[in-house]
Amino acid sequence: MPDHDEREAQILRAATAVIIRQGYDKTTMSDIADEAGVSRGTVYLYFKGKEELFEALLYWEWTQYSQIWLEAIESDPRGGTIGGFYRAIFHAVGSRPLMASIMRRDRRVLGNYLRKPDNQVAWMESGSTTVDLIKALQAVGAARQDLDPEVTAHLLETLSYGQLTIADFKSPDQLPPFPVVMEALADMMDRWLLPEDGGNSEAGKEVIRQVVAETKGRIEQMRLSNVQARDTKEVV
Positive or negative CA dihedral for 195, 201, 203, 205? Predict the structure, then answer.
Protein backbone atom coordinates (compact mmCIF):
# COMPACT_ATOMS: atom_id res chain seq x y z
CA MET A 1 0.00 0.00 0.00
CA PRO A 2 1.51 3.39 -0.94
CA ASP A 3 2.54 5.70 1.94
CA HIS A 4 -0.34 8.11 1.21
CA ASP A 5 -2.93 5.32 1.39
CA GLU A 6 -1.35 3.84 4.54
CA ARG A 7 -1.43 7.20 6.34
CA GLU A 8 -5.06 7.72 5.32
CA ALA A 9 -5.94 4.22 6.59
CA GLN A 10 -4.08 5.02 9.84
CA ILE A 11 -6.26 8.11 10.31
CA LEU A 12 -9.45 6.19 9.50
CA ARG A 13 -8.58 3.41 11.94
CA ALA A 14 -7.99 6.03 14.61
CA ALA A 15 -11.29 7.74 13.77
CA THR A 16 -13.09 4.41 14.13
CA ALA A 17 -11.65 3.84 17.59
CA VAL A 18 -12.44 7.35 18.83
CA ILE A 19 -15.96 7.50 17.40
CA ILE A 20 -16.88 4.11 18.85
CA ARG A 21 -15.47 5.18 22.21
CA GLN A 22 -16.97 8.66 22.54
CA GLY A 23 -19.42 9.09 19.66
CA TYR A 24 -19.45 11.27 16.54
CA ASP A 25 -20.76 14.40 18.28
CA LYS A 26 -18.01 14.50 20.92
CA THR A 27 -15.19 13.56 18.57
CA THR A 28 -12.92 16.31 17.28
CA MET A 29 -10.27 16.31 14.60
CA SER A 30 -7.71 16.79 17.39
CA ASP A 31 -8.97 13.62 19.11
CA ILE A 32 -8.50 11.68 15.89
CA ALA A 33 -5.03 13.15 15.34
CA ASP A 34 -3.99 12.20 18.88
CA GLU A 35 -5.30 8.66 18.44
CA ALA A 36 -3.47 8.32 15.11
CA GLY A 37 -0.26 9.74 16.52
CA VAL A 38 -0.09 12.52 13.92
CA SER A 39 -0.52 16.27 13.96
CA ARG A 40 -3.92 17.90 13.54
CA GLY A 41 -2.59 19.54 10.38
CA THR A 42 -1.81 16.11 8.92
CA VAL A 43 -5.43 15.03 9.38
CA TYR A 44 -6.55 18.20 7.57
CA LEU A 45 -4.25 17.35 4.66
CA TYR A 46 -6.46 14.36 4.00
CA PHE A 47 -9.88 15.62 5.13
CA LYS A 48 -11.28 19.15 5.16
CA GLY A 49 -13.48 18.56 8.18
CA LYS A 50 -15.06 16.01 10.48
CA GLU A 51 -18.07 15.33 8.27
CA GLU A 52 -15.91 14.67 5.21
CA LEU A 53 -13.69 12.38 7.28
CA PHE A 54 -16.69 10.52 8.68
CA GLU A 55 -18.22 9.96 5.26
CA ALA A 56 -14.89 8.64 3.99
CA LEU A 57 -14.85 6.41 7.07
CA LEU A 58 -18.31 5.02 6.27
CA TYR A 59 -17.15 4.03 2.79
CA TRP A 60 -13.89 2.58 4.11
CA GLU A 61 -15.71 0.66 6.85
CA TRP A 62 -18.18 -0.83 4.36
CA THR A 63 -15.26 -1.88 2.13
CA GLN A 64 -13.49 -3.64 5.03
CA TYR A 65 -16.73 -5.26 6.20
CA SER A 66 -17.73 -6.47 2.73
CA GLN A 67 -14.30 -8.02 2.19
CA ILE A 68 -14.59 -10.05 5.42
CA TRP A 69 -18.17 -10.96 4.52
CA LEU A 70 -17.29 -12.13 1.00
CA GLU A 71 -14.29 -14.15 2.22
CA ALA A 72 -16.56 -15.91 4.73
CA ILE A 73 -19.04 -16.75 1.96
CA GLU A 74 -16.32 -18.07 -0.36
CA SER A 75 -14.85 -20.33 2.32
CA ASP A 76 -18.24 -21.77 3.38
CA PRO A 77 -19.57 -24.69 1.30
CA ARG A 78 -23.07 -23.41 2.17
CA GLY A 79 -22.11 -19.78 1.55
CA GLY A 80 -24.42 -19.42 -1.45
CA THR A 81 -27.59 -20.06 0.56
CA ILE A 82 -29.58 -17.46 2.46
CA GLY A 83 -28.40 -19.03 5.71
CA GLY A 84 -24.79 -18.81 4.49
CA PHE A 85 -25.37 -15.20 3.44
CA TYR A 86 -26.51 -14.24 6.94
CA ARG A 87 -23.88 -16.41 8.63
CA ALA A 88 -21.26 -14.37 6.78
CA ILE A 89 -22.99 -11.08 7.71
CA PHE A 90 -23.05 -11.98 11.40
CA HIS A 91 -19.39 -13.02 11.23
CA ALA A 92 -18.38 -9.76 9.52
CA VAL A 93 -20.46 -7.56 11.83
CA GLY A 94 -18.99 -9.34 14.85
CA SER A 95 -15.52 -8.24 13.74
CA ARG A 96 -16.50 -4.64 12.79
CA PRO A 97 -18.06 -2.79 15.77
CA LEU A 98 -18.58 0.40 13.77
CA MET A 99 -20.54 -1.48 11.10
CA ALA A 100 -22.70 -2.98 13.85
CA SER A 101 -23.39 0.57 15.07
CA ILE A 102 -24.22 1.68 11.52
CA MET A 103 -26.67 -1.19 11.06
CA ARG A 104 -28.32 -0.43 14.41
CA ARG A 105 -28.33 3.32 13.68
CA ASP A 106 -26.76 3.69 17.10
CA ARG A 107 -27.44 7.30 18.12
CA ARG A 108 -24.72 7.30 20.77
CA VAL A 109 -22.10 6.46 18.13
CA LEU A 110 -23.52 8.20 15.04
CA GLY A 111 -25.00 11.21 16.85
CA ASN A 112 -26.26 14.24 14.95
CA TYR A 113 -24.94 12.89 11.65
CA LEU A 114 -28.15 10.84 11.45
CA ARG A 115 -30.14 14.10 11.27
CA LYS A 116 -28.38 15.18 8.10
CA PRO A 117 -31.05 14.96 5.33
CA ASP A 118 -28.77 13.24 2.81
CA ASN A 119 -26.69 11.24 5.29
CA GLN A 120 -24.87 8.23 3.91
CA VAL A 121 -26.17 5.84 6.57
CA ALA A 122 -29.74 6.26 5.29
CA TRP A 123 -28.53 6.02 1.69
CA MET A 124 -26.63 2.80 2.41
CA GLU A 125 -29.78 1.24 3.86
CA SER A 126 -32.07 2.32 1.02
CA GLY A 127 -33.30 0.02 -1.70
CA SER A 128 -34.62 -3.53 -1.77
CA THR A 129 -31.39 -5.53 -1.76
CA THR A 130 -32.77 -8.35 0.39
CA VAL A 131 -35.89 -8.76 -1.78
CA ASP A 132 -33.82 -8.71 -4.96
CA LEU A 133 -31.36 -11.20 -3.45
CA ILE A 134 -34.12 -13.67 -2.61
CA LYS A 135 -35.55 -13.40 -6.12
CA ALA A 136 -32.10 -13.95 -7.64
CA LEU A 137 -31.43 -16.97 -5.40
CA GLN A 138 -34.82 -18.41 -6.35
CA ALA A 139 -33.93 -17.98 -10.02
CA VAL A 140 -30.76 -20.11 -9.69
CA GLY A 141 -32.28 -22.75 -7.42
CA ALA A 142 -30.62 -21.64 -4.17
CA ALA A 143 -33.92 -20.75 -2.43
CA ARG A 144 -37.41 -22.22 -2.41
CA GLN A 145 -39.60 -21.14 -5.30
CA ASP A 146 -42.79 -20.87 -3.22
CA LEU A 147 -41.49 -18.08 -0.98
CA ASP A 148 -42.96 -14.58 -1.12
CA PRO A 149 -39.75 -12.50 -1.47
CA GLU A 150 -41.11 -9.39 0.27
CA VAL A 151 -42.53 -11.27 3.26
CA THR A 152 -39.41 -13.43 3.51
CA ALA A 153 -37.13 -10.36 3.35
CA HIS A 154 -39.15 -8.70 6.11
CA LEU A 155 -38.87 -11.76 8.37
CA LEU A 156 -35.14 -12.13 7.70
CA GLU A 157 -34.50 -8.48 8.50
CA THR A 158 -36.58 -8.81 11.68
CA LEU A 159 -34.37 -11.69 12.78
CA SER A 160 -31.09 -10.04 11.85
CA TYR A 161 -31.88 -6.61 13.30
CA GLY A 162 -33.25 -8.28 16.40
CA GLN A 163 -29.93 -10.05 16.88
CA LEU A 164 -28.08 -6.75 16.43
CA THR A 165 -30.25 -4.85 18.95
CA ILE A 166 -31.04 -7.49 21.57
CA ALA A 167 -28.30 -6.13 23.87
CA ASP A 168 -30.35 -2.92 24.18
CA PHE A 169 -33.04 -4.91 25.99
CA LYS A 170 -31.18 -7.71 27.78
CA SER A 171 -27.95 -7.73 29.74
CA PRO A 172 -25.07 -9.25 27.73
CA ASP A 173 -24.48 -11.84 30.48
CA GLN A 174 -28.00 -13.17 29.82
CA LEU A 175 -27.30 -13.82 26.14
CA PRO A 176 -25.92 -17.03 24.61
CA PRO A 177 -22.49 -16.67 22.94
CA PHE A 178 -22.75 -14.72 19.68
CA PRO A 179 -21.11 -17.40 17.47
CA VAL A 180 -23.54 -20.04 18.78
CA VAL A 181 -26.55 -17.82 18.05
CA MET A 182 -25.11 -16.96 14.62
CA GLU A 183 -24.83 -20.63 13.64
CA ALA A 184 -28.28 -21.46 14.99
CA LEU A 185 -29.90 -18.61 13.08
CA ALA A 186 -28.16 -19.53 9.84
CA ASP A 187 -29.15 -23.17 10.28
CA MET A 188 -32.79 -22.19 10.92
CA MET A 189 -32.81 -20.04 7.80
CA ASP A 190 -31.50 -22.87 5.63
CA ARG A 191 -34.01 -25.36 7.07
CA TRP A 192 -36.78 -22.90 6.29
CA LEU A 193 -35.63 -21.51 2.95
CA LEU A 194 -33.69 -24.17 1.05
CA PRO A 195 -35.30 -26.36 -1.64
CA GLU A 196 -35.70 -30.02 -0.73
CA ASP A 197 -32.62 -30.96 -2.78
CA GLY A 198 -30.43 -28.64 -0.68
CA GLY A 199 -30.20 -25.88 -3.27
CA ASN A 200 -27.39 -24.82 -5.57
CA SER A 201 -24.92 -23.07 -3.28
CA GLU A 202 -22.32 -22.43 -5.99
CA ALA A 203 -24.85 -20.63 -8.17
CA GLY A 204 -25.95 -18.73 -5.08
CA LYS A 205 -22.37 -17.60 -4.45
CA GLU A 206 -22.20 -16.09 -7.92
CA VAL A 207 -25.42 -14.17 -7.21
CA ILE A 208 -23.95 -12.85 -3.96
CA ARG A 209 -20.71 -11.81 -5.71
CA GLN A 210 -22.79 -9.76 -8.14
CA VAL A 211 -24.77 -8.17 -5.26
CA VAL A 212 -21.54 -7.16 -3.53
CA ALA A 213 -20.09 -5.69 -6.74
CA GLU A 214 -23.28 -3.74 -7.50
CA THR A 215 -23.57 -2.44 -3.93
CA LYS A 216 -19.93 -1.38 -3.93
CA GLY A 217 -20.51 0.48 -7.19
CA ARG A 218 -23.54 2.31 -5.77
CA ILE A 219 -21.66 3.32 -2.63
CA GLU A 220 -18.66 4.49 -4.65
CA GLN A 221 -20.98 6.54 -6.87
CA MET A 222 -22.55 8.05 -3.75
CA ARG A 223 -19.12 8.91 -2.35
CA LEU A 224 -18.01 10.59 -5.58
CA SER A 225 -21.29 12.54 -5.82
CA ASN A 226 -20.82 13.86 -2.30
CA VAL A 227 -17.23 14.88 -3.04
CA GLN A 228 -18.33 16.70 -6.21
CA ALA A 229 -21.19 18.44 -4.41
CA ARG A 230 -18.82 19.55 -1.65
CA ASP A 231 -16.27 20.85 -4.17
CA THR A 232 -19.00 22.75 -6.05
CA LYS A 233 -20.11 24.49 -2.84
CA GLU A 234 -16.55 25.56 -2.15
CA VAL A 235 -16.15 27.02 -5.65
CA VAL A 236 -19.43 28.97 -5.34
Answer: positive
